[in-house]
Amino acid sequence: MKMHHLILGLVLLMFTACGKKEKSSEETKSTPDQSIPVRVVSISSEVVSIPVQVSGIVSASNEARPAFKTGGVIARILVEEGTHVRKGQLLATLNLTEINAQVQQAAEAVAKSKRDLSRAKNLYADSVATLEQVQDATTGLSVAEQSFQIAQYNQSYSEIRSPISGKVVKKLMNQGEVVGPGTPVFYILGDGQADWVIKSGLVDRDWARLRLGDRAEVHLDAYPDRTFVAKVSQLADVGNPQSGTFDAEFAFTGSMPRLAVGLIGSLNIYPKEDAAHPIVPIDALVESNGNSAVVYVLQTDNTVKRTAVRVGQIFENKAIISSGLSADSKVVTSGAPYLEDGSRVKVIN
Known about the structure:
The chain is an alpha+beta fold. Among the domains are: 36-48 and 275-347, conserved putative lor/sdh protein from methanococcus maripaludis s2 fold (Beta Barrel); 97-157, Helix Hairpins (Orthogonal Bundle); 193-270, Efflux pump adaptor protein, beta barrel domain (Elongation Factor Tu (Ef-tu), domain 3, Beta Barrel). 26% of the residues lie in helices and 36% in strands. The protein is built from 4 helices and 24 strands. It has a 6-stranded antiparallel sheet with strand order 3-18-22-21-20-19, with no helix packed on it. Strands 4-13-16-15-14-17 form a 6-stranded antiparallel barrel. Strand 19 and strand 20 (292-298) form a beta hairpin. It is elongated. This is Efflux transporter, RND family, MFP subunit. One of its GO terms (molecular function) is efflux transmembrane transporter activity. Residues 279-336 form the Multidrug resistance protein MdtA-like C-terminal permuted SH3 domain. It comes from Haliscomenobacter hydrossis (strain ATCC 27775 / DSM 1100 / LMG 10767 / O).
């Protein structure tokens, strides 16, 4: 009887175990794997120069606005607008009638002062004139001689000679007009290969990255199919109060076509970089908006983290990440558009 009960208990135990196994199998079948299949890549790190992109205006580094030292009536204008001039070339002269009279008057004053001094010395020798009178006559002669030098100097600068070699862009005065001292008569631009530059304004962050001599690629609207090379030649140490930027100047290198002041261009400036930047395939970028984008970074528990990054530059189907990622991370490429923060993934590389 006892043996009968023992056998019955064993049979019931076997049926119970089988039932649990079938139930467990059914539960496993009813909860399929929710992981999203993706491909991931490891982030590489390279030293890449992220360019500074700005716009600029062509100008001339060598320019002049010559003027007369003294005022007067313009007697001759010897060049016209568009004329190429050499350094030292005569450009204009004043009517010398008044200036020559001033020189002659100063010369006569010198001659009179010499006679006065000679007479005072003779009278002093005869004890008629005092020493003070001799000293006054000596001072009078010195003042007259200096006035004569001033008149001669002004006479020599009653003409305008070009201070630079270049092109007369603008003639500001005409023959017969009365001109004041220091009033510009011409506007001259140096037009040699070394005279052309392109000027731009830099924001604080870009100004801090650049150094003198950094290379730049220039694209001019006037020559859309050509790329010109320039280098940083000047960086302002004081911000421009009107624009709020720092003025920068870039000197063209190599042969240049015909240029004009005011041409518009865009620049890609390549600073000398020493730091390495993370680089990812552009397939890893989602929700891109300008320089901002989102990537999904693989976590150790096979989930992904939504990470905002800043894109410095895109080249050859790769993106240089300027901030937001570390070089030891892995990012999702294939399958990234279907993810959200915290999604569980299955790597199928």
